Structure formats: structure tokens, C-alpha cells
Amino acid sequence: MNPKIKLLVGITEFDMSGAPKLAADIINNLDRNKYELALLSFFQPKDDNNFFDLLPGNLKNYRLNFKGFCDIKNWLETCRILREYRPDIILSNLFFSNTVLRALKPFFGYKVIIYEHNTYTKKKKWQIMADKIFSYFTYKIVAVSETVKLFTADQEKINQNKFAVIPDAIDYSDIQAKIKNYNKDDLKEKLGFKKEDKFIINVAKLWPQKNHKLLIDGFAEFIKRNSGYKLIILGQGPMLDFLTGYVKELNLEDKIFLLGRKKNVFEYMFISEFFVLTSKIEGFAIACIEAMSLGLPVVSTKVAGPDEYVIDGLNGYLVEGDKEDVSRKMQEIAGRGQAYFSENCKVTAQKYDIKENIRKLEVLL
């Protein structure tokens, strides 16, 4: 019998966001007869908003708490972990993890595969230079969409042959099992809403790049003709105070609900009619595919990810980034109704099932 491949999954922080969720799905779906697995995270979430509960109970879980790149104590602890675990391959996510684990590669001899999860338009020059230099220490760079590959290769002047495109994924069967016994009216009552309410949903960190102001402005235009709808925004971040104040300024407190992070995201998606994303940049936007798996059409700005899987009139609409266009496309979906798009949305979501992601990843491994 061949020995197991020792795989270490590295990640900057294991919070409730797209990259950690994908890492958890990969860990849960790789064949444990082929791979010995461990997780290494470099920063710890400040609260319980994390995905550690999704991991297998017997997984080696190394949790550091770096103060920054100059934290010598945690660099030494990282070295100790690498000496102890002795990985054959490291699968790393996000800039801090990618930098530390590639910098240490010459001393430990493992191979490194890193993920690029976004079109980082505001990456600093020193970060671009670091990624360029460390690309020579990297076996492959996995881009989560074709757009991310092209953007990163151009930004960092890295040969496109260094990249492999493996789209983000969902566990479609697991999601269907979760929602199997859901009832929309019962869930609305459980979550504190009225049965007659109609909902639009957005799930994203409250960061400037997510452009929630455009979402709110588009919704404010939309409800002039569709007063029965309400908007649910799930997520936490530095824009919370501004957005709360902006909703109050527009007198829409009874129409727009900023509910923070939620672990029962699929319950809120299930009671909704469609999903809206107004980000300035993305890498794949896995929340859109999660929404589609529940049959929700998607209105999205033309960013990486949705630009490849949102097809106008089939499973949603792409918008150019002004509130009038956002409102018009929301009106298109409201006019046709969720059922018109639902089956096409589910077909799209199934194309991004975790099984296909794992198959492509194992080719690299």
C-alpha cells in the first residue's frame, strides 16, 4: 500500500468567509485513505464567527495567533509545527499564509500550491513584488475563476502556465439535505417575519469592496414599485455603522434589515425570492452559487465569478453598477417570479459541486 500524502492546509484566518468555507469542504471531502490532513491557521477570529465546527473532530488543527509579519515567536512556532508534521504538500489560502509558507519552503522541502481568491485591485506594490518572487517557490497557483487567473497573471507578471483554474465549490447534496424539510412560512415566523413578506437577500462582509450602498440605493428605487419586498443583509464588518445610518437616513428601517453574521444562512436564503450582489471586486462569489442551489436567481455586478456563470434571463442578470440598472434587473426577476428561474439556477449550482472541485484538485496533488 502506498503511504498517505501528508497535506497541510494553511489559511490566514478561519473566519466565516468564502476561503475558509472552501478549505473546510476540501478537508471534509478528500479521501482520508489517500491523504493525511492537518489545518494551520495564522490568526484567530475574535469571536465565535468561524468555521471550526465544520471540521472533522480528529483533524490536527494548529492554531497560531500572529501579531503580524514581525512576530518572531510565531514564526518559530510555525517552524516547529512544520518539523513536527513534515508535510509533503501545502495547500495555502490568502496572502499572509501564502507568504509565510512559501518563505519557509526552502528550509522544509515541501511543495506549495496556493489559492488566489480575488481580483485584488488594491494590492500594495510590496505585496505584488512578494507574490512575484514567491511564485518561483510555488508548484501551482490555483485561481478560483478564469477572470482571477488573467487578472493575477497580468498584475504580477506571472506566466499563465503557472496557474490552474479550479472554481470554488459547494456541497450540493449537503445543502439539499439541510433544506429538505424547510417550510417557507414556518421559517418566516421562526425568524421573526410575517408570512406575507417577500425578501431579497445579500450575504457578504460589510467591507467597502462589497459596495452595499449601491445595493441599498438600487433597492430603494425598486421598492417604489414593489412595496411588498424587504431586504435582508447578512454580514459583519467596518461599514456597519455607516450602512445602519444610511438606512435610517432613507427611512427604510422597516424595509432593510442588517442582521450581522448568521450561521443559519440557508434559512434566510430559503425564505427569499432572489439574491443580489453589488461588489466592486470578487474572485468567485460562492454565496451566489449557494443561493442558486436553493433555486434563487441572482442579480450581480459584472465581477469575477458571476461574469462566468450568471446568464441574463436564464439564472439571473448582470448589472453595470448603477442603481437604476440594479433596480431594473431586480424588477425583471420580480416580474417573472422566482419559479421562472429556479430550475436553471439549480442546474448551474450543480456544475460547481465539491466533487468536481476535488477531482481537479487531486490531479494537482
Give a concise summary.
With 365 residues, the chain is of the alpha/beta class. The chain is built from 16 helices and 13 strands.
Q: Could you state the CATH homologous superfamily of the largest domain? A: Glycogen Phosphorylase B
Query: Roughly what percent helix?
Result: 40-55%
Mean pLDDT: 96
What does the overall shape look like? globular
- Rg to the nearest angstrom? 21 Å
Query: How would you characterize the largest beta sheet?
Result: 7 strands, parallel
| CATH topology assignment of the largest domain | Rossmann fold
Number of strands: 13
Which CATH class of the largest domain is shown? Alpha Beta
How many domains? 2
Query: Which second-level CATH architecture of the largest domain applies?
Result: 3-Layer(aba) Sandwich
Give the termini distance in whole angstroms.
18 Å
In spatial order, strands of the major sheet run 3-2-1-4-5-6-7
Structural class: alpha/beta
Q: What's the SSE pattern?
A: EHEEHEHHEHEHEHHEHEHEHEHEHEHHH
Percent strand: 15-25%
Helix and strand layout, with pairings?
Blueprint: E1 5-13, H1 18-29, E2 35-43, E3 60-63, H2 72-85, E4 89-93, H3 95-103, H4 105-108, E5 111-116, H5 125-134, E6 140-143, H6 146-156, E7 163-165, H7 172-179, H8 184-190, E8 198-203, H9 212-222, E9 229-234, H10 240-249, E10 256-258, H11 265-270, E11 272-277, H12 286-293, E12 298-301, H13 306-309, E13 316-319, H14 323-336, H15 338-350, H16 354-364
Parallel strand pairs: 1-2, 1-4, 2-3, 4-5, 5-6, 6-7, 8-9, 8-11, 9-10, 11-12, 12-13
